[in-house]
Amino acid sequence: MRLIYLDHNATTPVRPEVLEAMLPYLREHYGNASSLHTFGRTARKAVEEARGRLAHLIHAEPDDLVFTGCGSEADSMALKGVAFANRRHGSHLVTTNVEHQAVLDTCRYLAERFGFEVTYLPVDAAGLLRLDDLRQALRPDTILVSIMHANNEVGVIQPLDACADVVRDFSQQIGRRVYLHSDCVQSLGKLPIDVRRLDVDLLTFSGHKLYAPKGVGALYVREATVMDALINGGHQELNRRGGTENVAGIVALGAACALAEAEMGAEARRLAALRDRLEAGILGAIPEARVNGDAAPRLPNTLNLSIAGVDGESLLINLDLEGIAVSTGSACSSGSVEPSHVLRAMGVDKEYIRGSVRLSLGHGTSAADVDATLEVMTRVVERMRQLSPQWEDARALR
Amino acid sequence: MLTDEVLYHFKNPQHQGSIEDAEIVASVVNPACGDTLKVYVKLDGDRITDAKYKIYGCAAAVAASSVVTGMLIGKTLSEIESIKREQVSDALGGLSPTHAHTAVLAEDAVKAILRTQREKS
Predict the structure, then answer these.
(1) Of B10, B58, B104, Cβ closest to residue A332
(2) How distant, in Å, are the alpha carbons of A386, B1, B2, B64 from that of B99?
(3) N- or C-end of chain B: fewer Cβ atoms within 10 A?
C-alpha cells in the first residue's frame, strides 16, 4: 500500500540533503564544540555555520540565536526566562488562547506556581486576535506578550507586524520595553520572517517541522533582552543555554534553513495550489463539510476540515487503514471528547469540532497524493455517515 | 493507545448496518462525549436471530459496538441480561481507562434492548 503522509504540522521527514549534511557529525566529526583541539574546532565551525544559515533565513545577527533541544524548550525559555528576570517591572503576561501547549502550559505554570498574572486574548471566528483586545490588555506591569505566528491546527497567521506596533507604542508610553515573543515553529521556512522589519524580541523555532530531525530547536533573542537561562551549567550559547551542543542536530537545522531559503517561495506556491485543490475537491464531493480558518490568511500547507456526522478519531483511523496519515482535533479521553482548544476558541460548533481533521501537506506531497486522498476521503466519509445514527436521524428531520 | 483487538474490530467490523423489519430498535447515547449507538434486533420468539448496529463514535466505540452486537446473536432475551461491560472490555483486550466508557455504552445498549422489549409487552 502506498503511504500518504499528510501530517507535516506534526513532524516532517528528514530530507536526504539534511541527513547527508548531519551524518559526518555523528560519525567522524564527533568532537565537543567547546573543546580546543581539532575535533572540537571542527564541531564549533559547523555549529557556527549552521547558526549563520538560520540567521540568514530570518535576517538576524548570528549571535542573537540560541540553539535549544526543541521548540517547547525555546518557548519555555522565552517565557520563564523573561518572566523571572523582569519581575521587578511587573508580573503580567499577555498571550492568546490559541497558542501551542508549550506556551499555554508554561503560562499556567508561571501563574499557578509563581503568581504571575496572565491575560489570554480571544480570537474571532476566523481565528484572528483583535488588535484592540491586545491594546486593552497591556498594563503598566505587563512584561511580556507572546503571540504565535501561524497556528499549528488551523494554519491561521496572526498579524504579527501590527501586534509588534501595538506593543512598541505601548512600550514608548510607559518608557520600558515590553518584550514580544512569537512561536514561529510552524511558520519558519513557510513564511518570510525578517527581524530587521519585524519588531519582536524573541522567536521560537523547531527543526523537525522543517525537515531536520527531532531534538533541535532555536530561540531568537534580540540583543539587550534581559532574561534568565532555563538550563544553567555551562558557558555554551554565550551563557544563555547550558549543555553540550547537539552538533549534528544543529547542522541539520542549518542545512534545512538553507534549503528553505532557496525553495520557500516556489514551494509555498506549489503547496498552496495542492492544498486549494484538495480543499475544493473535498468541499465539492462531501456535503456538510467546512474549512476552519479559511477566512484569514493561512499557512499554504494546512487544511483543517470539519465534517458533520463523523467522528474525527474514527475518520483518522479509517484513513490510516487506507494508508493516509492525518490528525484530528477531537481526541477521545476518559469518556469525554477533549475538543481542540483552537477550534473552541474560534467558536466552532461541538459537532463540527468532533468531526475535525487536519491535513498538512509537505515537500513530498504530490498532486497524485492529493487526488488519492480526495477519492479515499469521499468514500470513507460516505461509509461512515451511512453507519452514523446521528447522520440518519439528522437527514430524517429534513 | 488503542489495543490490537480494538484495531482488529475496527478494521473488520461485524454486523454493521440496519435491519428493516427489526422487532427491537434501541438507541443509547453517552452524554459526556456524544457517542451514539443504535442496535437493531431481529427476534424469533424469544431468541435473537440477527442483530445489527449503527454507531457515531471513536474507534473504541466502533469496536465495542461490533463486539456486543456479535454477543447478542443466537441468545435469548433472558440470556443477554448477563452481558456486562467487563465482557466487552475483555473481548477488546482490556480497554484502557480512556476507552472504558465505550464498553459502558455497549452494556447500556443491551439494557436498552431489554427495556424496549419490556415496554412493548
Answers:
(1) B58
(2) 24, 9, 8, 10
(3) C
